[in-house]
Amino acid sequence: MNYQQKSNTSPRRNTETIKYLDNSDNEPTDLFEIRECIGKGNFGDVYKAIELETERVVAVKVVNLEDTDDDIDVLVQEISFLSQLRSRYITNYYQTFVRDVYMWIVMEFCGGGSCADLLKCHKFLNEDTVCYIIRDTLKGLEYLHGQRKVHRDIKAANILLTSTGQVKLADFGVSGQITATHVKKDTFVGTPFWMAPEVIIRRSGYDEKVDIWSLGITTIELVTGSPPYSDHEPMKILFDIPKNPAPILTGDKFGETLKEFVKFCLFKNPKHRPSASTLLKTKFIKGCRRTFSLIPLIQEKNEWNALHRPNLKRPRYSIDDKLYSKSEASLRWSFTTKKAPLINLNEEHNRCIYGLISNNSTRVMGALDSSPESQVLPISEKYPNSSETAITSTSTEPAPVNIPSDEILNGEALHVQEINKSPTAIIHPQKNIEPINYLNDVLVYAFKRVHHRARSADSKLAVNSLAKQFVVFEKDQPGISEALAEEIWLRMVQLRGHKSKF
Amino acid sequence: MAFLFKRNPKTPSELIRTLNEQVIKFDHSNNDKRKLQDEISRYLNSIKIILHGDEDNDPQPDLIAQLAQEVYQTDILYNLILNLSNLEFDSRKDVQTLFSTLLRRQIGNRSPTVDYLISKPKILNLLMKGPEIPNITLITNSILRDCIKLKQLNKILLDDITIWKFFQFAQTGTFENMTDSFQTLNELITTHKKISSQWLLINSKEFIIKINKLIGSNNYVTKRQSIKLLSQLLLTRFNTQFMLIYVNDPENLKLIMILLSDKSKNLQLESFNVFKIFVANPKKSKLISEILIKNRDKLLNFLEKFNPIIDRKDDNLFNDEKEFVVQQINDLPRLIISNNNPNNIVNINNNQQ
């Protein structure tokens, strides 16, 4: 399914032979086996999943596009942006599908959890561990900043670990691209404790140096267990961070190179903060142990998790939720179509438009007409034969859509009947027809319509009191509405229906 | 730092010349592709540093001028695009950087890169065909969008018949390639409104067929983006003539009405923004009126319950518009099908009741 580039030396010569991967043809549920939900956010849920073809473990972000507050164009841009990043120090993007109103974003899976998960179990991490994590995070940042991207939300929770102990920067959900024409971002993104002063002040926008500040805060978080001011109100610290001097790491238990590293990151003036590449050359980072592995820490955490946090995350949406399920169809409009619309509609839509209404002996269906006053006929009774119910049109142009005959025979015509009694009715194409509430759905409904049509206040009043009377009568004599409705219907068929082969 | 490695081109002009010589070598199969890629990556990286500086050096205008001058003397831009898929993943982005930086470069009020691209139409044409090659689509589209910002280039791109392929590009390939090509198409016809309004008018028939196809797509994202683009175009002041053509075709109204009753609130809202134009049109064609009249009661009923607003902010505007639409539909003549001849439509004037 991944695009395989032809190793042809002249890329242009063979463009026709390149096969496009047609996104819409793939049902992601056929390609991935969804396992447990591993996270949720405002955007939607994250699942662990297995790509069936390769048996690769992946993370799938499922974003509900119908519910999200974000502009769909912004999300689309984010994905283009993600697909242009490739580095072993970030969680890499694989592909995206659209299924129903959901977007499935398939990403690299990090089985070791996040550094915040490590802190929950281990409370704080020793300097060797922190050095290793920060070094690889810096490499991730160096890559991102080299691509002229700002992460904008660096914190332990967004530094992920693979099951083999590799460190990867994750969650680019709010990142932005710096362009030369618009160097400074002036949107308010990030998490308060980790936010750089200039992000909060927003006087002059900001650049990639905000990530360096957040990295300094993250370093404090990793060695102490929490970011500075973590016991304060998040909203109050928005005032404190720009006002107070930069946090410093003190105390004998921390090494001098570590303290120095934190100091470099936390210069309040962003111009004084070194770049990621420069920070990689600091004594603290250079002093990293060559052979170091996070695996024991991760395993310990996993065991601790099994004891203390056995509950799986419950997703916000069910993976099987669909807006366009087959059980419903939407409103049918009446189009006296001479030809099919230009587009290829899906079958559900086809059934919606080309209802089975007839008012003329020669025209069976296909061509529509249904003002509420017009006749409706249960075609199935008179046209049990599919050849007869096939679409015929009075015009010479081809009939629009072939409706499978079994649908017509299975009481579908009765739905039509229902619809035309109430023009906005939703069609329920299930086999068993729900009983009609004759008082509400027919009589009171009809009165409402008449009320709506009444021009003068007097007429409206009269209609109103008549309707009220019927409610009273039905209570008194249950079934009276049904009988009356049927009689009216039969009489109308008698008077108006004889022309139409009823 | 830029010129540390051995056998290195000394000046920006040499750099461009050497790069140009290397890039065309992809055409001859005997070369070690990997080695060539590495070499080209280094050159492109050096170019990037000349253009944008690095940590220790700010970009120097005279070096940039030399570099640009050499670019205009050669076919380097064309050759880079032609061989884009042969370059390393990150080098392709450096090509994009080279383009966008050169495009922004101005001398007085002249833009030498624009003049150059106008004199070499094969470059823009090649860029328009970029989405035919999946792994360079995002790069060529991004360069195209930089070109679109410049009016003269936008005009040339609109007149390139490859533009019609973008409706196909917007429906095929990976998600990011589809949506990115759609974005390019969108910017092609919305950025410089005067130019695009002429184009839309001349090409209205074909455009409407193509955009309707996108709106009818099975892909929810394609549907939403294309209906949004359509409503944006119709409501642009410069596009009035195009709008009048659009709202007089009953097929368009049918499509929009179907979408109006879609299950997606977002699609409903977007299609309402188009539907209201049909209704508001004071000179509705006979066929349009007929459809509205036939569906008068269904529409009134539907609109009564119609409330797709998710974002509270637009509530007032939406409610006003809805009220207006309801009023207009309410005022439509009612129709009754005659018993004997169903083609005989009798209008009953409301006032006579």
Automatic annotation (TrEMBL), chain A:
Q: Which SUPFAM superfamilies does this chain map to?
A: Protein kinase-like (PK-like)
Question: Record-annotated residues binding ATP?
Answer: 61
Provide the alphabetized UniProt keywords.
Answer: ATP-binding, Kinase, Nucleotide-binding, Serine/threonine-protein kinase, Transferase
Key word Nucleotide-binding present:
yes
Q: Name one GO cellular component term.
A: cytoplasm
Its EC number(s):
2.7.11.1
Keyword ATP-binding belongs to the record: yes
Q: What class of enzyme is it?
A: transferase
Per UniProt, what is one GO molecular function of this protein?
Answer: protein serine/threonine kinase activity
| Residue ranges occupied by any Protein kinase domain in the UniProt entry | 32-285
At the top level of its lineage, which domain of life is listed? Eukaryota
- Show the catalytic activity: L-seryl-[protein] + ATP = O-phospho-L-seryl-[protein] + ADP + H(+); L-threonyl-[protein] + ATP = O-phospho-L-threonyl-[protein] + ADP + H(+)
Q: Which family does it belong to?
A: Belongs to the protein kinase superfamily. STE Ser/Thr protein kinase family. STE20 subfamily.
Put simply, this protein is called non-specific serine/threonine protein kinase
The lineage, from the top, is: Eukaryota, Fungi, Dikarya, Ascomycota, Saccharomycotina
TrEMBL record, chain B:
What InterPro entries does its record include?
ARM-like, ARM-type_fold, Mo25
Q: Can you tell which superkingdom this protein's organism belongs to?
A: Eukaryota
GO molecular function term, any single one: protein serine/threonine kinase activator activity
Q: Which GO biological process categories is it annotated with? A: intracellular signal transduction
Q: Which family does it belong to?
A: Belongs to the Mo25 family.
Q: Mind telling me what this protein is named?
A: Mo25-like protein
This chain's source organism reads Wickerhamomyces mucosus
Q: Tell me the lineage of the source organism.
A: Eukaryota, Fungi, Dikarya, Ascomycota, Saccharomycotina
